[in-house]
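Protein modeling request. Please complete all fields; requests missing the sequence field cannot be processed.
Requester role: graduate student
Desired output: 3D structure, token encoding
Chains: 1
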Amino acid sequence: MQAKIGDHLVVEGRTDHDQRREGEVIEVRGENGAPPYLVRWSDGHEGLTYPGSDAHVVAAR
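Delivered output (61 residues):
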């Protein structure tokens, strides 16, 4: 997985009861766009994230 600042990280829910999460990548700490990413989630919280197989990156426009 590779991302750059401004891209969006989308994490799909693992079960029917889990909601999809989306946030903006505000810092890339890995080399060449690799994780971990500092993400500002849609609820305003920020956190360092190591995305799993249930996540994908949507490129910034």
